[in-house]
Amino acid sequence: MTNTIVTSYTTSIPKRPDITGKPDQVFQFKNFMDHLIGGIRAGTIAALGTVVPGSLSLQYLYAPQLHCNLSGKPIAIIGNCSNKPGEFTMIKIDVASIRDFPLFKDKTTFDAALTHGEDIPPGFLVHTDWSSIGAPSAIVGTLVPNFFIVYFGHDPPHGSIEDDEVMLQLARMGVGYELWAETAKDAIDKGDDITSILDKIDDEEKPEMEMYKKYLDPNRHDNSLPLSKYNGPFGSMTIVPTADFPAAALLLKKIFLPESSVPSSTVLPSGNIMTLQLPGDIDKEAEAKKGLVKLMLFHVRGNIDIEAITMTNISAAVPSKGMQIIMNQNRASRASSFADLMRMTINEAKAQDWTSIRSSQISIKLDISHLQMYCIYVLLVHPA
């Protein structure tokens, strides 16, 4: 019997035979939130996807966990921003940010899988590209959620939806994923025209629900997603500290940062310790330790005489207690622990006398490519 090496969270469980990737499984639901919340609680949903605000790049939240208020109503979805075991940064989607975005398009090129409203009146098309000579004879509108659902067994692509290779991978996952991405691209491309038509619809002296059912979605109801009038298909995800959501953090760390443990049936002589590591992990940990040595070299101290071009009293920086704890941890959990320490340090600075420049100003320089924050001079040399 051979053990299968898990390379991603979404492929850790085989795809169910009833998963087809059609629109009615990806984004087109009578009640999107009911399906989403039910799927998370049932453990059938592996991730949520959207496009990054300001770009066309795909972004995902993996292993979604519900965060509820005191009455049990979900108000946020917590997850990991990486699909790979050993990588963990907790992110959050506010339930209130999950919305429908509008799309108006030539009726003759409209995908049959999308539900649309009545033809848009010519007066609503004034000051849009569709008002020019040679414009389509009929323009119709629809509503699409700004997030889509990913199930287990899929390996979702990353990159821009303008990339042909990314679109090909989405098509392989199912026609629903390809259709969502095409719809998102069209909505971004026609953003100004869409806003112009929505403004004219809102100017009508009729109930908003009536107008949206007429021109966008005849099946719209009181429990439908709120309308995103100006943000288009962009979904919002934010990085959050693990301390803010301890229950979700505990579950997510068990998934992405499993602790190596000795089987209970193994009996070891007293005083002996067994450590289990994969060869790849050993190499990565060795490289990470080299990085720590380089980090300490970046923060050597001494007295510099610029005129004489000499340096005296050279000494190594002394890490603070908090920084020493981070350096002693394994590579996988070092980044999230450092983020927690930085957040705690900034909060402490804010709590000090606001009139003191030492507590009201802080300068940080980041080198994202190596995940090294060379500003930690503040923490290393001047521990609080």
Structural notes for this entry:
- It contains twelve helices and ten strands.
- Helix 3 packs across helix 4 and helix 9 (321-328) runs antiparallel to helix 10 (331-351).
- Residues 260-265 and 364-384 have low confidence and may be disordered.
- The longest helix is centred in the C-terminal third of the chain and has 21 residues, at 331-351.
- A six-stranded antiparallel sheet has the order 7-1-2-3-4-8, sandwiched between helices.
- The protein is 34% helix and 16% strand.
- It folds into two domains: 23-246, no CATH class; 279-381, no CATH class.
- With 384 residues, it is an alpha+beta fold.
Offer a quick outline of the entry.
The protein is an alpha+beta fold and 384 residues long. The protein has 12 helices and 10 strands. A hairpin with a 6-residue loop joins strand 1 and strand 2.
Structural class: alpha+beta
Instruction: Name the strands of the widest sheet in spatial order.
Output: 7-1-2-3-4-8
Average pLDDT over all residues: 82
Radius of gyration: 26 Å
The total strand number stands at 10
Biggest pleated sheet? 6 strands, antiparallel
Strand content: 15-25%
The arrangement of helices and strands along the chain is HHEEEEEEEHHHHEHHEEHHHH
Structural domain count: 2
Output the number of helix runs: 12
Label the overall shape: elongated
End-to-end gap:
54 Å
Share of helix among residues? 25-40%
- Return residue spans where pLDDT drops below 50 for at least 5 consecutive residues: 260-265, 364-384
